[in-house]
């Protein structure tokens, strides 16, 4: 792996950790013990996303298309809930909170990456 690719991955992970931490501070029903927990959660979500979308791509793409994107939201919600069980420092009060958090983290992440020129 090229050095700049590794730096880019680490930057994206840190920005996602900031996004998770910010959303946890603002969203009722989501808690993060600290920035380290948020970065750990972001790392687990990244790994789960890679696994889920790689192995389920043939099933998830038509499902997401047929449900007008709601299928992708459901999959991301499930990934957030699984990551919640793996990472001790980030918790959700329920499924709806995890779904809204996945949307909010994606939004904050996009804004931060655009501001930092990482896209």
Descriptors:
single chain, 119 residues, mainly alpha, 4 helices, 2 strands
Structural class: mainly alpha
pLDDT < 50 runs, ≥5 residues: none
* Beta-strand content bin: 5-15%
What does the average pLDDT come to?
90
Query: Could you tell me the number of beta strands?
Result: 2
Number of domains as seen in the coordinates: 1
Quick one: biggest sheet? 2 strands, antiparallel
What is the helix fraction of residues, given as a range?
over 70%
Q: Over the alpha carbons, how many angstroms does the gyration radius reach? A: 14 Å
Alpha-carbon distance between the termini?
19 Å
Q: What general outline do the C-alpha atoms trace?
A: globular
Q: What strand order characterises the main sheet?
A: 1-2
Discrete helix count: 4
Order of helices and strands: HEHHEH
Question: What can you see in these coordinates?
Answer:
The protein has 119 residues and is mainly alpha-helical. The protein has one domain (3-116). Helices cover 80% and strands 5% of the residues. Strands 1-2 form a two-stranded antiparallel sheet. The longest helix has 32 residues, at 35-66. The chain is globular and about 35 Å long. The two termini are 19 Å apart. The model has no long low-confidence stretch (mean pLDDT 90).
